[in-house]
Amino acid sequence: MAFPSHRPRRLRSTPALRRLVAQTSLEARHLVLPMFVADGISESRPISSMPGVVQHTRDSLRRAAADAVQAGVGGLMLFGVPRDEHKDPVGTVGTDPDGILNAALQDLAKDLGDETVLMADTCLDEFTDHGHCGVLDDRGRVDNDATNLRYVELAVMQAASGAHVVGPSGMMDGQVAAIRDGLDAAGHVDTAILAYAAKFASGFYGPFREAVSSRLDGDRRTYQQEPGNAREALHEIRLDIEEGADIVMVKPAMSYLDVVRSAADLAPVPVAAYQVSGEYSMISAAAANGWIDLRTVVLETLTGMRRSGADIVLTYWAADVARWLS
Ligand code: PBG
Question: Which residues form a coiled coil (predicted)?
Fold first, then answer.
């Protein structure tokens, strides 16, 4: 019997060899921590479908944000949760300078300055009473161009409140161009746009509804993409780059790694992937049952996203991973 002449196992034989030849790195700086801040609560509130994730008060957010930055995460992505009675059809509270998201951005900008990258979700679903990502026309459909006008107002307010990066996540056509123009006109030429460029209509956003205390009648299929459409995703990504996106994101991550890879191959700008709420819940639940090892699996999923071409990964484990890696 011939012995194998090629022995790839040689380079796996010691931890030092494996470290030397590792092709993909995962560092804390690659990770962005999404955080929720709620109005009208006196202490942080657990999100039952996302064990370990909470809706913060403004104070607990400041402490948790400082801890995450101290641990080394690359940035923070903020979502605001207003009181129900402050929600209306156009999401007015999102553009109120004292609205919860803008107030929290001001807090963190004051605390952290340029020590981290402060990002904000630029969308209406957290702020509207109907739960859609846009404003509705008289037939109840999401009105693309009217929504973009609101996104511009949101983005300008978030930039003025201290966001380094705004993250339009509503999948309206032309949202990046509209926001870029609006930011520039308001003097925020250095505020970057992280475009949720290829965002799929996904069941994995389920726990996010609880996280932002929002409900939605119907679905988002007139603005988010069908899970099977890869070429359409590339079209969306190219359009966002043309419109001036500084970073393009694919979301969710795990079921769409082929799209992440294609995005990385075509995009001249950094690519991000979002490990969304349902991905967090799914792994947490299996780990809680003792079926998988949490740390091993989390590191494996994030490494897979990096291997697929993601420069940046948004994950609710960002601060934990930063601590594990240090
Ligand atoms: C829209 C937005 C959503 C998420 C991020 N931004 C919800 C949606 O599109 O339905 C989901 C994030 C997650 O599930 O972790 N504002």
Answer: none
